[in-house]
Write a structure and sequence with these properties.
heterodimer, A: alpha/beta, 4 strands, B: alpha+beta, five-stranded mixed beta sheet
């Protein structure tokens, strides 16, 4: 249940751990949006997400859309299998830039640019 | 969810059984008229449906095997392969194999090795036929089986896709209510294959307005499934209230898509693209759809840019959805559904539920009787009146409940077509099966349990009753033997007859055998009927010996035991050289009957009302305390039994004794009782195993006053008295 928004010369890294569900939706929305506002680009790390529901997906979509609106960058750098399953079910891999972002490939997640 | 899958499998098994029966019937029809295109189509459809459903449920073995069968049938349908006796033979074997596989579907153990091997053999046979056809490359090729599009009204084009189109727009509160769209969508693959799924995110508002706990998502899904619309709708049952769900069946009319597009909140262009991307519509179809939509708009005067056909200019917002269009769409969908599913006429009910209902009605009958009695005692007129109305209603309720359990026996009979056909090949006799009275209805439990005895009897008739063709020719009979199955109603009973025109029973041989088995004393004078009925004695049926001797009697005691467990009786009629008839009498129902209550000594007994013919007073001349005797009833000798004797009652006979005359299977017998109470509704309760062998009693019932009354088993009472009399006569 930790999250971190650090600024290390480049994209801020937002790591979400534990549950990514409706019980934490409000808190996580703030984390993601604050992260986006604070830096020109964020890397979202979902590798420690144990559980994800539709509200979680929705937040990722929101962050992605917000990034586009603010002309900033957002990418998902890693995703746990729980997160991947849901992203694949919703066929959102491409949209979220997380199609291939399995945990072990955390460094190769492609960067998404707002259109 | 796991439970639902199990349920889906159960439904699959039930439906497949019906389809397999259809296939068998169709094959038997084709045997006589191989060019019947309708029958070929129905055969193909049955196989196709089984294949589809088994695929969905992950029953791969069935799917794989049925696929090959279907390939062959599809070629037959295209007139590329001609139906021959040989093909029918193979297809019947395949049908049996599928049937075996279907029965294994309920168990998790998978398909037994033996069945897999058998399947492989049959596939080889099928391939041989497939290969033999012109252009015979089809054997290995996975053929796309085109399913005829459902009939639809002539106006409007039809989308070419085979997939269902599902549009979902979840309500804002879905997530808060614990309804996660993911769990519903995640369930869909159990019913079919998601061809395409597109998540609609357009409704998500900007970040500062977005409530992270609300649901803004929608989904456009193209879905391949052989399930009906109801099953797909059921997946979304829990969210139906706060979710917009549109389900378009495969091959829906373009018009329906127009209505869908209009009903959904998103941009037309976007929706159009989604429909194309998902494969629901082709480009041309979309153009047509939008043209149609414009026509709508013109008519309704709702859109400004109506004249321009450029799709980008038409925006349909939430506010612009025309309720009448939505209504029309729903109406049309309903129509298509009627065409699609014939299930709408019948409801499938778990037999257990029906049993529960019958039990409850039974209890209701008992308590109504109690109320009726109280009302009479209190002598309150309005109460008596309402209780009698209630009693009448309960009676009607009872009748319709029992009726719901009644099924025609025809289905059971028609299964014998195949059996007789196979048997006639095996034993080299030509046999015609004549079925009559198939519409006669009886209780479902009875129908199920009568099947085995019938199989036995039909097999006996074919094997032992009918002579070989040469023998028949010599005797001047037609070479084709005839077996007749008949059912009819008779005095509260159903009578089922299995008759043949064979050689009949050999009286002397049966007697000989019975004497040697110790079932009859040598020199005992027995009527023909008594002798024939000896074949039902347990000691009589020692397999082959009997077959050689009399040609009859294999397992006949089992037949009788089965029938008696249904409170029925069985008898044989036979004429040497002309044939044999086995006649089974069964009660219509096992649960509730109309009874006639009488008093014997100080207890109450119930006689099934259907068997009661009349009641007369015992003439004074017969008042002596005789056990049994005869009276002169309008010039006819009527034997009677004093029931108080039969049940060993010590009480002195009442002042007035009455005779209740009962009739069963052509016998009339008088039962002398002490008191007549009249008609009662009787819920039969079984007495349990301990009392099974008590003669003359078939069960018990609970009376309105809470007392127990025994139900008199008239057939067995008559039997036991008859045998006593004949014993005395010797």
């Amino acid at each position: 249940m930790k999250k971190a928004a650090k600024k290390i010369n480049g994209p801020a890294r937002v790591a979400i751990e534990g549950e990514m569900n409706i019980y934490r939706a409000a808190e996580l929305k703030k984390t993601l949006i604050d992260g986006l506002e604070a830096s020109p680009a964020i890397d979202v790390d979902l590798s420690e997400v144990e559980e994800m529901d539709t509200s979680g997906i929705q937040l990722l979509v929101l962050a992605r859309m917000e990034a586009a609106r603010l002309k900033k960058q957002m990418k998902i750098t890693a995703a746990s299998s729980a997160a991947c399953t849901l992203i694949e079910l919703y066929n959102m891999g491409e949209f979220l830039g997380a199609a291939a972002a399995k945990t072990d490939e955390s460094s190769t997640g492609e960067t998404l640019h707002g259109e | 969810m796991e439970n639902e899958l199990q349920q889906a499998r159960q439904t699959f098994i039930t439906e497949s059984r019906e389809l397999l029966q259809d296939m068998e019937d169709a094959l038997l029809i084709l045997e006589n008229s191989p060019d019947d295109q309708d029958t070929i189509n129905s055969l193909f459809r049955s196989a196709h449906t089984i294949k589809g459903a088994s695929g969905i449920l992950g029953l791969d073995e069935i799917e794989r095997f049925t696929h090959v069968v279907e390939s062959l049938l599809s070629r037959v349908r295209e007139n590329e392969i001609k139906i021959t006796g040989e093909i029918i033979e193979v297809l019947l074997e395949c049908r049996d194999h599928i049937s075996g596989l279907v029965e294994t579907a309920s168990s998790e153990g998978g398909v037994p090795k033996k069945a897999v091997k058998r399947g492989a053999e049959l596939i080889e046979k099928l391939n041989a036929h497939l290969g033999a056809a012109p252009g015979g490359k089809a054997a290995a090729k996975a053929e796309q089986a085109p399913f005829e599009p459902p009939a639809c009204d002539s106006t409007g084009a039809v989308a070419s896709t085979d997939a269902w189109h599902i549009s979902l727009r979840f309500g804002p509160d879905a997530l808060r209510a614990g309804m996660d769209p993911a769990s519903f969508i995640g369930y869909l693959p159990k019913l079919g294959e998601i061809v395409s799924l597109i998540t609609i995110t357009e409704s998500i508002p900007p970040a500062d307005e977005m409530d992270p706990e609300s649901c803004y998502l929608g989904f456009e899904i193209d879905f391949m499934s052989d399930f009906d619309k109801k099953s797909i709708e059921d997946v979304f049952e829990f969210v139906r209230e706060d979710c917009d769900i549109y389900i378009l069946p495969p091959h829906s009319r373009i018009q329906s898509y127009v209505e869908l597009i209009e009903a959904l909140p998103e941009d037309v262009v976007l929706l159009g693209e989604i429909l194309i991307r998902g494969g629901a519509l082709t480009h041309t179809e979309l153009q047509e759809a939008l043209a149609l939509q414009n026509a709508h708009a013109v008519k309704d005067g709702a859109a400004d840019g109506a004249q321009t056909l450029r799709i980008g200019e038409i925006m349909v917002g939430q506010g612009m959805v025309h309720p009448e269009v939505v209504d029309a769409a729903l109406e049309k969908q309903k129509k298509t559904q009627v065409v699609r599913s014939r299930e709408s006429n019948t409801i499938r009910i778990d037999a257990g539920k029906l049993d529960d209902l019958v039990d409850l009605v039974g209890e209701l009958v008992i308590s109504t009787a109690a109320i009726g009695q109280h009302a009479q005692r209190i002598e309150d007129a309005p109460l008596t009146e309402s209780s009698s109305i209630m009693m009448r209603l309960v009676e009607e309720l009872r009748d319709s409940t029992m009726k719901a359990r009644m099924v025609p026996i025809g289905d059971t009979f028609s299964r014998f077509n195949r059996m007789v056909r196979d048997m006639s090949r095996d034993i080299g006799k030509e046999i015609d099966l004549v079925i009559s009275g198939g519409e006669t209805e009886l209780d479902k439990t009875v129908v199920e349990r009568i099947n085995d005895p019938l199989i036995h009897l039909v097999r006996n008739a074919a094997d032992h009753g009918l002579e070989d063709p040469e023998v028949r020719r010599v005797k001047g009979k037609p070479e084709r033997g005839k077996i007749r199955l008949n059912a009819l109603h008779d005095a509260g009973c159903i009578v089922i007859e299995v008759s043949d025109d064979g050689k009949g029973l050999n009286r002397e041989r049966i007697l000989e055998k019975a004497v040697s088995a110790g079932l009859a004393a040598p020199g005992q004078p027995l009527s023909d009927r008594e002798i024939y009925n000896l074949v039902f004695e347990p000691g009589f049926s020692t397999a082959e010996k009997v077959t050689k001797l009399s040609g009859r009697g294999v397992g006949m005691d089992v037949v009788r035991k089965n029938i008696e467990s249904l409170r029925g009786t069985v008898e044989i009629e036979s004429r040497e050289g002309e044939g044999t008839t086995v006649r089974i009498r069964l009660p219509l129902t096992l649960a509730i009957i109309d009874g006639f209550m009488v008093g014997i000594g100080d207890s109450c007994y119930v006689i099934p009302l259907d068997m009661v013919v009349e009641c007369v007073e015992l003439p004074a001349s017969e008042k002596r305390d005789k056990k049994q005797s005869c009276i002169n009833l309008r010039g006819e000798a009527l034997p009677y039994i004093r029931m108080s004797h039969f049940f060993n009652k010590q009480a002195s006979p009442g002042r007035f004794e009455n005779i209740v005359i009962v009739q069963y299977a052509g016998h009339k017998v008088g039962l002398v009782v002490d008191e007549l109470f009249g008609e009662v509704q009787t819920v039969i309760k079984s007495l349990g195993k301990v009392y099974r062998d008590v003669r003359g009693i078939s069960g018990a019932t609970i009376l309105g006053n809470g007392k127990v009354a025994l139900i008199i088993d008239v057939p067995r009472l008559i039997q036991s008295v008859e045998s006593e009399i004949s014993a005395v006569a010797v």
